[in-house]
Amino acid sequence: MRRNDRNMKLQGKVAIVTGAADGIGRGTAVKFAREGADLLLVDLNESGLSATSTLVAEAGGRVEEMVADVTGDDSPERIVARAVERLGALDILVNNAGVPPSGHFLTITEESMDRVMAVNLRAPFLLGQAAARHWIEQKKPGRIVNISSINAEIIQGDSSDYCASKGGVRMLTKAAACDLGRYGITVNAVGPGHTRTGMTRHLIDNPELEQDWVARTPLGRLGEPEDIANAVAFLVSDEAAYITGQTIYVEGGRTLHIP
Ligand SMILES: NC(=O)c1ccc[n+]([C@@H]2O[C@H](COP(=O)([O-])OP(=O)(O)OC[C@H]3O[C@@H](n4cnc5c(N)ncnc54)[C@H](O)[C@@H]3O)[C@@H](O)[C@H]2O)c1
């Protein structure tokens, strides 16, 4: 296929994308493959992973699937080791796996708070740490992109657990960038607005809710996974070599609008 096109941004790179069975993770994996990367796809959802795998292979990328929970005790090391064993290297980590908010401040249980924080914040920290240790040992540069959210900046109701986790991702991204810059590792984040995926099905299936959201978005539409993937691909490319610690919000201007 088009694997030797010099215009490809990620030719010869190996990337891990978590939460790759659906939505933004799937869109990112396919975009990376089109840009010349090989991929390790990680998710809990086996059938979704196979579907993404097929799309990646069609785009010309070598692909490995790994069914795993990113919060598992030995997951970070196993995931990094799998990429190196099966694909021969690791250049890029995209921490995308995430879970939605679980309700009103007064009703969120301890268990659901722990789950949201474990998937959305603790796992990106531990996986980032495992990847950075690998790169430092190999004396190689590396790229990390964490998928944050506009909820790192603006609040909507019934989402204290989610907002706290994504606010944490924003500061984790800055702090990790500070510590890892001297090793040639960049750490950035992309913060989507409402994007058409399984996570926003409740919005997409309710025309009134969707219309209300669109009316508050200067560019007048919801995001698509490809919109987010394009920003992620830029941040892991050579063109973004001097960018670190930043969050790019890909949200059609939604955070500019006072609710
Ligand atoms: N869709 C939006 O509007 C939106 C907005 C802002 C941020 N985000 C963020 O984008 C990221 C992707 O979300 P999406 O919208 O594509 O949702 P999605 O539900 O379509 O995809 C999330 C994927 O993560 C996987 N996953 C969840 N927990 C996991 C775990 N413990 N281990 C491994 N895989 C796990 C799921 O199986 C799923 O395939 C998330 O971090 C989410 O918070 C989404």
Small molecules (ligands, ions, cofactors) in the structure = nicotinamide-adenine-dinucleotide
CATH architecture title:
3-Layer(aba) Sandwich
User: Any idea what the radius of gyration is?
Assistant: 17 Å
The CATH class, by name, is: Alpha Beta
Biggest sheet architecture = 7 strands, parallel
The count of β-strands is 7
How helical, in percent, are the residues? Answer: 40-55%
Please list the strands of the largest sheet in the order they lie side by side.
Answer: 3-2-1-4-5-6-7
Low-confidence runs (pLDDT<50, min 5 residues)? Answer: none
The global form is: globular
CATH topology: Rossmann fold
Oligomer state of the chains in this structure: single chain
Tally of separate domains: 1
Structural class: alpha/beta
Terminal residue distance: 47 Å
Strand content: 5-15%
Taking all residues together, what is the mean pLDDT? 96
CATH superfamily: NAD(P)-binding Rossmann-like Domain
Order of helices and strands: EHEHEHEHEHEHHHE
Helix tally equals 8
Topology:
Elements: E1 14-18, H1 23-34, E2 38-43, H2 46-58, E3 63-67, H3 75-87, E4 92-95, H4 110-138, E5 142-147, H5 160-180, E6 185-192, H6 201-204, H7 207-215, H8 225-235, E7 247-250
Parallel strand pairs: 1-2, 1-4, 2-3, 4-5, 5-6, 6-7
Helix pairs in contact: 1-2, 1-8, 3-4, 4-5
The structure holds nicotinamide-adenine-dinucleotide (NAD).
Task: Give a written overview of the molecule.
The protein has helices at residues 23-34, 46-58, 75-87, 110-138, 160-180, 201-204, 207-215, 225-235; strands spanning 14-18, 38-43, 63-67, 92-95, 142-147, 185-192, 247-250. The chain has 259 residues and is of the alpha/beta class. The chain contains eight helices and seven strands. The protein has a seven-stranded parallel β-sheet with strand order 3-2-1-4-5-6-7, with helices on both faces. The mean pLDDT is 96. The chain is 43% helix and 15% strand. The N and C termini lie far apart (47 Å). The protein has one domain: Rossmann fold (3-Layer(aba) Sandwich). The chain binds nicotinamide-adenine-dinucleotide. The site of nicotinamide-adenine-dinucleotide has 28 residues, from helix 1.
